[in-house]
């Protein structure tokens, strides 16, 4: 009797310790999307919530690279892709230039399907870090050759409509043994570099549309984990009151930019799906990789 009880207790302990099953991960990266960029879209939408607000868990990501408190997209994407910090300019390699295995490569090895979707070309820093390995992010020819050899099932670069492309990618990836899909809103960053609020809102709307498609998918495919974050903030954007006396009614949306480059500001994290709660709180960008690898049960 005692022994039976022990077995039951042990089984219960095992079941509760096991994280919920994740078969698919959709990672959406808004390049250059800091907290103010998200707020800008919220303000522009008025009372209508944006798709990112549908996430059930929130947090922040610390973005510094190995050699700079202000990261570039190559080092930041390498952190998400490989779980290691590297120097700015390095793509899928460590500080010594040695190649690091990426989550996409691990997924391929485990027999999962993979996909990359971006509004820029796929050899660019953010998508490039998921399959490419080069100490120079601008070595486009070599990175392009690595893309051809990576065996990625869905490669949609320079897409016009990120939501549509995300839907297309999901149609192809569904029904496989599980998948890892990375979707990048690439030009939020360019809008920040240009300090261009109109373009920023256009690119944020495009990205949030893709977020909506991913969340719709996760609602009907419950083993899908959706992670929405950014590699860094671009432009040092803030949204001050249009009137110094903010006790007055509506002051209008004002945009003020602090830089034409990137900033060190922490970036938002929104998560939805099985095991989302472990993503809550403040994380180094490398920890996002560790949590994704663990969630998919990859080695
Ligand atoms: Zn940039």
Walk me through the topology.
Elements: H1 2-17, E1 24-32, H2 35-45, E2 57-62, H3 73-82, H4 103-109, E3 113-118, H5 125-128, H6 140-149, E4 154-156, H7 162-173, E5 179-185, H8 188-193, H9 197-220, E6 224-234, E7 262-263, E8 267-272, E9 281-284, H10 285-295
Parallel strand pairs: 1-5, 1-6, 2-9, 3-4, 3-5
Antiparallel strand pairs: 2-8, 6-7, 6-8
The structure holds zinc ion.
The site of zinc ion has 6 residues, from helix 8.
Overall mean pLDDT = 94
Question: What is the CATH first-level class name?
Answer: Alpha Beta
Helix percentage? 25-40%
**Oligomeric grouping of the chains:** single chain
Query: What is the ordering of alpha helices and beta strands?
Result: HEHEHHEHHEHEHHEEEEH
Structural category: alpha/beta
Q: Main beta sheet: strand number and arrangement?
A: 9 strands, mixed
Regions with little confidence, pLDDT below 50 for 5+ residues: none
Q: Which geometry do the CA atoms define?
A: globular
Number of helices: 10
> Could you give me the name of the CATH homologous superfamily?
Alkaline Phosphatase, subunit A
Number of domain units: 1
Please give the radius of gyration in angstroms.
20 Å
């Amino acid at each position: 009797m005692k022994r039976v009880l022990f077995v039951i207790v042990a089984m219960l302990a095992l079941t509760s310790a096991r994280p919920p099953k994740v078969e698919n991960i959709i990672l959406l990266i808004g390049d250059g999307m800091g907290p103010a960029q998200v707020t800008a879209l919220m303000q522009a939408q008025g009372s209508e919530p944006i798709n990112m607000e549908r996430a059930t868990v929130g947090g922040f990501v610390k973005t510094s690279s190995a050699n700079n408190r202000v990261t570039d997209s190559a080092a930041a994407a390498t952190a998400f892709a490989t779980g290691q910090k590297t120097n700015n300019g390095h793509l899928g390699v460590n500080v010594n230039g040695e190649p690091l295995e990426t989550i996409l490569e691990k997924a391929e090895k485990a027999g999962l399907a993979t996909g990359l979707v971006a509004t820029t070309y796929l050899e660019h820093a953010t998508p490039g870090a998921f399959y490419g390995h080069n100490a120079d992010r601008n070595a486009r020819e070599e990175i392009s050759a690595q893309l051809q050899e990576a065996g990625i099932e869905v490669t949609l670069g320079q897409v016009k409509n990120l939501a549509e492309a995300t839907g297309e990618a999901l149609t192809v990836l569904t029904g496989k043994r599980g998948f890892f899909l990375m979707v990048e809103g690439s030009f939020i960053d360019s809008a920040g570099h240009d300090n261009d609020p109109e373009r920023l809102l256009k690119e944020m709307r495009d990205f949030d549309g893709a977020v909506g498609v991913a969340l719709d998918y996760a609602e009907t495919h419950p083993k899908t984990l959706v992670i929405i974050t950014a590699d860094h903030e671009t432009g040092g954007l803030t949204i001050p009151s249009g009137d110094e006396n903010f006790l007055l009614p509506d002051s209008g949306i004002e945009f003020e930019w602090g830089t034409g480059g990137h900033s060190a500001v922490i970036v938002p994290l929104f998560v939805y799906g099985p095991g989302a709660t472990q993503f809550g709180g403040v994380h180094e960008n490398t920890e996002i990789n560790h949590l994704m690898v663990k969630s998919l049960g990859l080695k």
